[in-house]
């Protein structure tokens, strides 16, 4: 029997999910036989966590970590428990950092590390450095490519962001992030970022060619039109032209944005309307309040929880409910990333939304 336990402790834990009473009894028996069986401690923690026994799970995972910190998935599991259940963001970040060292191909360690950093208010440069630790950037999963591109754009490294799209295949996933969304967002951030530091020639060139096809990037050949016509895109283009003293073109963008009727775009339409002489504060406050009521309902039913809570947060900010708004945005960073909700929440927390 002791040899059986010894052999079991040497096997991979990656696809093992204990869930029966017999599993519990076997794991406890293995630990009685050998208190230093890291595999048994890890799997026992997994058994506890599946039953919402968070404290017991964390205790077992910590024991396993002391005995064998290089065990695959261990630090990803522990980090997720600390991040989502305990809300101990600093501790979670430390665990994910160790996970990147010991389990460098595990996507969870990177994506969750970025979430923890964002909640803690760490700058984009730190998030970029963590993502760039991935052992093979050429084969980095698309979800991390998108996150790295957006964080590089937030950092101001626009070339580094756009270079990531070269020589890659981006498959489509139902309900997933569309590569066109990420590409357009990187270019928008480039335009507005350059305009704000006075590099207007390059900023205006980027703005005017936003929807133009790019050689070697097949996804830019079509499908960009709906994204180009959004209230947010037109608002940011208006801000770009305004920063570069192109008032006529800025006003044209603001007018297009203010005409948007999609409730999810109302904050950007409102921000644009405020730039125009015809702005009616009472009418727009009513529209924002109505959109907020709808957003509050959506957070209970939407399959896109991260996006829904982000949308709630920016509406709360627009209506002057800053404490609630920032809390919603931080909560969005702890939910699944939908429609670039992590990126948008980070920007909103930094003040990059209409106010």
Cα Rg? 24 Å
Shape: elongated
Euclidean distance between termini CA atoms: 68 Å
Portion in helices: 55-70%
Given helix and strand content, the structural type is: mainly alpha
What does this structure look like?
There is one protein chain. By secondary structure, the protein is mainly alpha-helical. It has a domain at 281-355. Helix content is 66%, strand content 0%. Helix 8 (124-131) runs antiparallel to helix 9 and helix 17 (281-301) runs antiparallel to helix 18 (305-318). The longest helix has 21 residues, at 281-301. Residues 1-8 have low confidence and may be disordered.
Draw up the topology in text.
Elements: H1 2-9, H2 21-33, H3 38-50, H4 54-67, H5 74-85, H6 89-102, H7 107-119, H8 124-131, H9 142-155, H10 158-163, H11 179-196, H12 200-208, H13 225-228, H14 231-243, H15 247-258, H16 266-273, H17 281-301, H18 305-318, H19 322-332, H20 341-349
């Amino acid at each position: 029997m002791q040899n059986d336990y010894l052999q079991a402790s040497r096997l991979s834990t990656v696809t093992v999910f204990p869930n029966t009473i017999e599993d519990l009894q076997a794991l406890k028996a293995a630990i009685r036989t050998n208190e230093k069986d890291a595999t048994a401690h890890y799997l026992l923690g997994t058994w506890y966590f599946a039953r919402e026994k968070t404290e017991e799970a964390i205790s077992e995972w910590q024991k396993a970590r002391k005995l064998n910190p290089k065990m695959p998935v261990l630090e990803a599991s522990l980090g997720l428990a600390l991040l989502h259940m305990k809300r101990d963001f600093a501790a979670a970040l430390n665990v994910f950092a160790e996970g990147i060292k010991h389990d460098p191909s595990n996507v969870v360690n990177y994506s969750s590390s970025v979430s923890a950093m964002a909640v803690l208010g760490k700058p984009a440069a730190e998030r970029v450095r963590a993502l760039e630790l991935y052992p093979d950037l050429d084969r980095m999963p698309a979800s991390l490519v998108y996150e790295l591109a957006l964080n590089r754009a937030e950092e101001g490294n626009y070339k580094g962001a756009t270079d990531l799209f070269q020589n890659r295949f981006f498959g489509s996933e139902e309900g997933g992030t569309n590569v066109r969304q990420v590409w357009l967002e990187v270019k928008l951030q480039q335009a507005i970022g350059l305009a704000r530091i006075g590099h207007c020639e390059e900023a205006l060139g980027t703005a005017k060619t936003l929807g133009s096809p790019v050689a070697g990037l097949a996804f830019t050949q079509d499908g960009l039109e709906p994204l180009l016509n959004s209230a947010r895109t037109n608002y940011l283009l208006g801000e770009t032209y305004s920063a570069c003293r192109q008032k006529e073109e800025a006003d044209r963008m603001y007018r297009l944005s203010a005409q948007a009727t999609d409730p999810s775009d109302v904050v950007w339409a409102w921000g644009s309307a405020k730039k125009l002489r015809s702005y009616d504060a009472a009418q727009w406050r009513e529209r924002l309040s109505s959109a907020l009521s709808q957003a509050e309902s959506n957070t209970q039913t939407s399959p896109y929880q991260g996006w829904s809570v982000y949308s709630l947060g920016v509406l709360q900010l627009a209506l002057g409910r800053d404490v609630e708004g920032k809390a919603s945005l931080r909560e969005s960073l702890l939910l699944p990333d939908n429609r670039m909700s992590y990126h948008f929440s980070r920007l909103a927390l930094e003040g990059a939304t209409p106010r």
